[in-house]
Amino acid sequence: MRAPRVRQWGLWGSKDMTVMPPARHRPAAKRPMWIIVLLCLVCVVLIGAYVYPPRHYSQCYLSASSVCTPFKDWLPSIGRREKTDDEIISAAVIRDILGMPMSTSKNPKIAFMFLTPGSLPFEKLWEKFLQGHEGRYSIYVHASRQKPVHTSSLFVGRDIHSDAVVWGKISMIDAEKRLLANALEDADNQFFVLLSDSCVPLHSFDYVFNYLMGTNISFIDCFQDPGPHGNGRYSLEMLPEIEERDFRKGAQWFAITRRHALLILADNLYYKKFKLYCKPADGRNCIADEHYLPTLFNMVDPGGIANWSVTHVDWSEGKWHPKSYAVADVSYDLLKNITAVDETIHVTSDDRRLSAS
Ligand SMILES: *[C@@H]1O[C@H](CO)[C@@H](O)[C@H](O)[C@H]1NC(C)=O
Ligand SMILES: *[C@@H]1O[C@H](CO)[C@@H](O)[C@H](O)[C@H]1NC(C)=O
Ligand SMILES: *[C@@H]1O[C@H](CO)[C@@H](O)[C@H](O)[C@H]1NC(C)=O
Hints:
Layout: H1 2-18, H2 26-29, H3 33-51, H4 55-63, H5 69-74, H6 85-98, E1 109-116, H7 123-130, E2 137-143, H8 170-184, E3 189-196, H9 205-213, E4 218-221, E5 255-257, H10 258-266, H11 269-277, H12 288-300, E6 305-307, H13 332-339, E7 345-347, E8 354-356
Parallel strand pairs: 1-2, 1-3, 4-6
Antiparallel strand pairs: 3-5, 7-8
Helix pairs in contact: 1-3, 6-10, 8-10, 11-12
One 2-acetamido-2-deoxy-beta-D-glucopyranose binds next to strand 6.
């Protein structure tokens, strides 16, 4: 009832202006166009202010609610905010890291970083994979529960200082950062591959080496999940730096470039948000290792990541953990099938929609 009255008033105003009768004084007849334009603008702004009172703006900012998103898009300047000190610092550091040259090593190596509770059951398999390629790889083992017993000499002496890792918690990210920090010490390491104790190689070393060294993007899984196990885990406390529309999901196992490894260690701002506001068992069940890196890279270097991982993980069962293969499942056919996979299926949690990339 009130809004229509205002709109009518607005129309009235503009009608008045356009059918302005020729005035007695000459100059008035040539009433400059800009006044009319200005008055029209004033009308529009007043109507806008009336129909959308200012509290809507602050709501947009606080909740990024979908109700006012179209309005925000309509007047783009309203959603803009001043960057925080932390953001300005972070942006400066990240910009320079992303500007680094791609490879600075004459003897590039791949860092294989194993994140494991204890001993690695497939060391012998990895040894076969790595044999004959000395000098083109390095190995790091983060054992979070028990000191591993190594069955391959290639793994002996490769354990790094470790700490406990709890599933879903930030300690998982801390372990990844520990591995990256150790691997970055070797200036020849150019690609950083995170592996679990249940990973096995599916291609030859040369294939993997050429594949990774031949690209300048990182393989980090990243997609948007509008469902409860995606955006449902987002917390408003991540504002103002991380908005819900920035929030992403992805499987943990990555293969990243040196500058992205450095970027992860340099990031404090976004890491802190996830450390404080992305926790399992707090109602939202946010799993830091499924969201931190996808969200970070989606925000700071979206074109620099593939949005899929070179590590195959089967989430099609839609459970908390991916499909695991028992001894009886593992056959030549299965490995051949997995090796032939050339698309990543992203399983979202809204209505089990699938999307491939
Ligand atoms: C990455 O490589 C592509 C072509 O392979 C090139 O177009 C692009 O500029 C490179 N990006 C960077 C950041 O070096
Ligand atoms: C990954 O997704 C982002 C955002 O959707 C996009 O900008 C980027 O180009 C994608 N990366 C590649 C390599 O296609
Ligand atoms: C491998 O793929 C073929 C063709 O899709 C399928 O018929 C077969 O059951 C698969 N085998 C295994 C072990 O997954």
